[in-house]
Amino acid sequence: xxxxxxxxxxxxxxxxxxxxxxxxxxxxxxxxxxxxxxxxxxxxxxxxxxxxxxxxxxxxxxxxxxxxxxxxxxxxxxxxxxxxxxxxxxxxxxxxxxxxxxxxxxxxxxxxxxxxxxxxxxxxxxxxxxxxxxxxxxxxxxxxxxxxxxxxxxxxxxxxxxxxxxxxxxxxxxxxxxxxxxxxxxxxxxxxxxxxxxxxxxxxxxxxxxxxxxxxxxxxxxxxxxxxxxxxxxxxxxxxxxxxxxxxxxxxxxxxxxxxxxxxxxxxxxxxxxxxxxxxxxxxxxxxxxxxxxxxxxxxxxxxxxxxxxxxxxxxxxxxxxxxxxxxxxxxxxxxxxxxxxxxxxxxxxxxxxxxxxxxxxxxxxxxxxxxxxxxxxxxxxxxxxxxxxxxxxxxxxxxxxxxxxxxxxxxxxxxxxxxxxxxxxxxxxxxxxxxxxxxxxxxxxxxxxxxxxxxxxxxxxxxxxxxxxxxxxxxxxxxxxxxxxxxxxxxxxxxxxxxxxxxxxxxxxxxxxxxxxxxxxxxxxxxxxxxxxxxxxxxxxxxxxxxxxxxxxxxxxxxxxxxxxxxxxxxxxxxxxxxxxxxxxxxxxxxxxxxxxxxxxxxxxxxxxxxxxxxxxxxxxxxxxxxxxxxxxxxxxxxxxxxxxxxxxxx
Length: 652
Description:
The protein is α/β, with parallel strands linked by helices and 652 residues long. It has 4 domains: 37-194, Rossmann fold (3-Layer(aba) Sandwich); 220-361, Hect, E3 ligase catalytic domain fold; 386-456 and 539-650, no CATH class; 460-533. 38% of the residues lie in helices and 12% in strands. It is built from 17 helices and 17 strands. The strands form 6 sheets. Strands 4-3-5-6 form a 4-stranded parallel beta sheet, sandwiched between helices. Helix 7 (248-261) crosses helix 10 and helix 8 crosses helix 9 (297-304). The longest helix is centred in the first third of the chain and has 34 residues, at 175-208. The protein is extended.
């Protein structure tokens, strides 16, 4: 009967179950109990190339692995990547950052190549070794998944800082080794997560203090200040604040004014700026070689969407890491400084209005004239101004039997239950109704009588009280700030203040800060209320003149419509259209200019005198308020020829 030693000798001459090593079991007729050399694959990783030096880190990792290997083990292939350890496994090993460096290690691929070769029967290695398990991944789940995939094909994953055994490759791990490795993987993930949290908090404080990150935005320039840390300050390191650029600053204000007042598109603003590149120098990219020497659509968009122009420092507007690198973050994720930290080129209200224009212009061409599509045959005058009252979508132009229509035909999957397959209305019918509306309610001599009765009876005393309240709030805020400064000065006069005195000072300072914050909140609310208060006197600043839209070119009529903030809400079910315009103190001059260019019939002297005498009877009012667009009720005995402002008019 064979002895146990004989059975072991017989088993040693065979390949170990699960091992796919291409080494022959016999060489020169002599039986070998085990391979003479254990072949290893080096798995290395260094962080992103702007955080570490791969030319030093990777050779150090390889040397650490080779230092712990026994004599019968050798590294024969090298797999390494230059990437973040927190990247998802599906995206690992697919970058090209390693190509930017002269790394003195031959590269056979990345982590994906290692896993792919491990599954082949002709792989060139028997085990994988890394400096530490966190080099495989900084996320415990991904590191464990890689380890599991290697074990499934009989490849052990070794770490240089853990005990290494080659006497039994099929059972190389022990209970203690598993516990140690899992603890290290958890610590590695915890360390990175904690560093990210602390880094985020640091960037928030950095933003609150007004320090800029990266290239200053167009319209501002860098203001270098000494670093607050003495050691870094001694090395000449500086931090960056922002200050208004003397040449670029006015260009930003000009672009915002065109966007808000005339609601021009990005490309239209770029075309205007390109007419004088000396006064309006284009932005210079981070890489000057990429400069095109003129304003582009994207240049204008970047300027008009950058909140730093409001004087606040803003950070985290774009994602810089992960799968969505350089994608725009939601506005609620932006980090704002609580107070302005540098000179503002536009106020917050103007910035918000510019973004609202973007929402209004979404999926709508801004320039006049026909579409650039080669099959375009005509232009629709009311394109982008007609809205569906059922679904809220914008009507588009369509021609049927040589007749132009405005249509709302949503796709079946996006159609509401109460929305038919489509609404059609003739464009010339809408133009006739709009022409009567503008000629009578907006530029007619009796336009004031066509306003809503509530607007004509606006309480001027109430408006005057609001103005006085605004002045008192601004004065109170200024007085509170003066008291706070006086409190600090009094503290400087006390040579040896005791704890009770300091406590009283801190309590008083806290009270003043809370009082100032409350007053500022009241001021914001009241300013918003004043801004929304209707002001019918804005109509008096418009010229009185007939306008025939049929004789006005498309580019001029669109300028007039934009200045008027024209909206036509058409209800296809009742065949009614509601025309609405909005006048503000900021846009009234643009309306007057556009009207002067589009008017084709001169105003008679009698009509001009009547309007002049009527305006003299009006009391003076502020002109920075919106004109409410609500139903008009004419005075008794007055019979207008067309429906009143905001009143629905039937379209045949």
